[in-house]
Amino acid sequence: MMETFVQDPARKDWDTYFMDIAYMVSTRSRCPRRHVGALLVQGKKLLGTAYNGAPMGAADCSEAGCMIVEEYELMLVEGAEQVTKKQRCIRTIHAEQNLLLFTDRIDREGSTVYVTDQPCWTCANMLANSGVKEIVYHRAYPKDSEKVLSLMEQKGIAFRRLAAYEPPSQSGVSVIS
Ligand SMILES: [Zn+2]
Ligand SMILES: [Zn+2]
């Protein structure tokens, strides 16, 4: 019998539903450089939401400005290694880390995390130890991709990108990287 790949329409619907919510959550972020939203989903039940932001009660980026650090990144440009200077805001706690701070371990066991952006290395490392069994994201973050993918493979965590997904227009998506 010939196997054909059939997309599960129900799955696609749930993915869109939860990713739309993640984008709406991301609009709460006060960092002008990046708005990230993350959700904890257990058996189609939404158990937590989080976005990137300064600790509660501390000045956020809209009040105190971004806290910028400069980093040098080694990039491969047309086969040649090239050092590029990048700026990053470190005032905020990443959405995934806030999600872990505000959810319980027992709720995370076997759960799915929906996140607007592919997790950075630190977030991926923490998620890998959090009980989560699946991570679904939309926007790619190539910088850490290789080591994050290999970690997810080692841990047996499903790691899916919704490449065809389009964020809702109300989320006012804009990214400066
Ligand atoms: Zn900022
Ligand atoms: Zn992160």
Task: Label this structure with key terms.
177 residues, 6 helices, alpha/beta, single chain, binds zinc ion, Cytidine Deaminase, domain 2, 28% strand, zinc ion binding, two-stranded antiparallel ribbon, globular, five-stranded mixed beta sheet
Task: Please tell me about this protein's structure.
Belongs to the cytidine and deoxycytidylate deaminase family. GO terms for molecular function: dCMP deaminase activity; zinc ion binding. Its cofactor is Zn(2+). Residues 13-162 form the CMP/dCMP-type deaminase domain. This is dCMP deaminase. The protein is built from six helices and seven strands; from the N terminus they run αββαββααβαβαβ. A hairpin with a 2-residue loop joins strand 1 and strand 2 (45-51). The strands form two sheets. The chain has a five-stranded mixed sheet with strand order 2-1-5-6-7, sandwiched between helices. Strands 3-4 form a two-stranded antiparallel ribbon. The model has no long low-confidence stretch (mean pLDDT 91). It has a domain at 14-52 and 92-166: 3-Layer(aba) Sandwich (Cytidine Deaminase, domain 2). With 177 residues, it is α/β, with parallel strands linked by helices. The termini are far apart.
What's the gist of this structure?
This protein is an alpha/beta fold. It has helices spanning 9-26, 61-64, 95-101, 105-108, 121-127, 142-155, and strands at residues 37-42, 45-51, 68-77, 80-89, 112-117, 134-139, 158-161.
Q: What profile does the largest beta sheet have? A: 5 strands, mixed
Q: What's the SSE pattern?
A: HEEHEEHHEHEHE
Ligands and ions found: zinc ion
Give me the number of helical elements: 6
Strand content: 25-35%
Q: Helix share of residues?
A: 25-40%
User: Regions with pLDDT < 50 over 5+ consecutive residues?
Assistant: none
Organism: Paenibacillus methanolicus
Family: Belongs to the cytidine and deoxycytidylate deaminase family.
Cofactor: Zn(2+)
Protein name: dCMP deaminase
